[in-house]
Design goal:
304 residues, eight-stranded antiparallel beta sheet, alpha+beta, two-stranded antiparallel sheet
Length: 304
């Protein structure tokens, strides 16, 4: 389904609803999916995806050129113009709905919404084009599938929820700008930039073009220096609650036992996320994004 093979490994009688994210239901011409082997713990990678603060710095170019370079987005874009967004997070029965709100002066506020669907899905708005001028009906997302403690396979997708199919320019911007072009990956889907070659860091580019000095995005998280944002904190709380609900019995049967004495449904295993979309938009100052964007955030059609 949706150009992917899905598997459920639990008891047949507890098979959850099929994972019908909207990207799996649009026609093939309206979606684009790739995968990347990342040498990073899946949880660390996911925390980067649900942290909208870092994009204003790590993914910002140091030039005012409005075209996107491999070293970051334009310094004139919305996320670069407003470096200290506020974060508003809501807990849902599938995970989290959250938004970064960036003041733009008299223009209003740039609001970008995201979804975290348990256990490892993230959706982000992708309507704003280069430097925020272009509007397009796109949503992007990731699945951070664990391989072991230090590796994960990341499935990346974009899809169009409008009448327009995926434009080759959108696809190239999505892949090339993220360091996932054909020349950037090996046959086993690893990135050519890795720890073994110091991620091919360019120190001169780091001074003049982008903070990281690395073409495309990569993940090198040091937990001892990580500053938590509300979305990361709330996500950890949800994981902890899910773990407390049940435990693996190591005494008699090695099956999950519900500690609270009743059957509990893990978050993200229902169908509540079928209609989700991640939306970004400039709203008047003072407008409540939850109300203004509600019909668009939950605007995907139901699928049989």
């Amino acid at each position: 389904m949706g150009d992917l093979v899905w598997a459920y490994l639990g008891p047949r009688e507890k098979t959850p609803p099929a994972p019908k994210f909207e990207f799996t239901q649009v026609t093939e011409s309206h979606r684009y999916i790739t995968k990347t082997w990342e040498e990073c713990n899946w949880l660390q990678a996911l925390e980067g995806a649900i942290d909208s603060q870092h994009a204003s710095f790590l993914h910002r170019a140091l030039t005012s050129d409005k075209t996107r370079s491999r070293f970051g987005q334009s310094a004139s874009g919305y996320r670069a113009r407003s470096l200290t967004p506020s974060h508003e997070v809501e807990t849902t029965n599938y995970g989290l709905l959250f938004a970064s709100v960036r003041p733009l002066g008299e223009e209003g506020n740039y609001v970008r919404t995201y979804h975290f669907v348990m256990p490892f899905y993230s959706l982000r708005a992708a309507q704003m084009g280069i430097a925020g001028e272009v509007k397009r009906p796109l949503v992007a997302g990731h699945m951070w599938v664990p391989m072991d403690d230090e590796n994960c396979m990341v499935y990346d997708w974009i899809y169009s929820f409008g009448q327009t199919p995926i434009d080759v320019r959108w696809r190239d911007e999505f892949e090339w700008g993220s360091g996932r072009g054909p020349e950037d990956r090996t046959a086993d889907f690893r990135k050519t930039r890795s720890k073994t070659n110091n991620w091919m860091i360019d120190r001169q580019a780091q001074k003049t073009m982008g903070y990281s000095g690395i073409e495309g995005s990569t993940r090198r998280t040091m937990r001892s220096r990580k500053a938590w944002v509300p979305s990361s904190t709330e996500a950890r709380s949800i994981w902890a609650q899910a773990i407390r609900r049940s435990s693996l019995c190591a005494v008699c049967c090695f099956k999950p036992h519900v500690r609270l004495g009743k059957e509990s449904i893990p978050p993200g295993t229902g169908s509540e996320y079928y209609q989700l979309r991640a939306i970004d938009k400039v709203l008047p100052a003072g407008a409540e994004w939850q109300q203004e964007l509600k019909s668009e955030i939950y605007g995907a059609p139901q699928h049989a």
